[in-house]
Amino acid sequence: MRKTSVPVLPLTGGCQCGRIRYRLNARPLVFYLCHCTECQRHTSSAFGESLRFRREDLDVDPGLVSMSRMSESGKLRHGWFCPDCGVRIWHGTEGSPEFNIKAGTLDDTSWLVPAGHIWCGSKQPFIHIADDELSYDAQPTDGYEAMKLRWQAMTG
Ligand SMILES: [Zn+2]
Ligand SMILES: [Zn+2]
């Protein structure tokens, strides 16, 4: 298992044009990669990077716009993004107190090591996940508990 250290808080980040900035004031709950086809589409890339946090721990500049859609797991999902440059900052599921920052928006991404991979059933074939990594074919059914425990062990 690869180890890493969470930088000194707050973690800061923002969109591409600079209009929206945010500060995360508590340690993230977990960091993982999502290989679902919706993450592939909204990142226009191979996977989404999710840094999970509690809403009350995030200060974000006003002005984000949102869109909603039904997820592959049948829940209403909301995404918030900059109205000027279109970069998605964070998203979450209806009724959940936990949300995900799109981790590529952090000012410092050098310390990120994923604790797991979800929706590997639709991952791009050129992505190779090591045997000792935690991976799920679809949505974890344990509420991300195993992944959170691994994240705690990884980040000390
Ligand atoms: Zn922007
Ligand atoms: Zn996804």
TrEMBL record:
The keyword Metal-binding appears for this protein: yes
GO MF annotation: an example: metal ion binding
Domain CENP-V/GFA as annotated: residue spans: 11-112
Organism (species): Hoeflea halophila
Superkingdom of origin: Bacteria
Signal peptide: none
Name of the protein: CENP-V/GFA domain-containing protein
Keywords, ordered alphabetically: Lyase, Metal-binding, Zinc
UniProt cross-references to InterPro entries, sorted A to Z: CENP-V/GFA, Mss4-like_sf, Rubredoxin_Fe_BS
Family in the record: Belongs to the Gfa family.
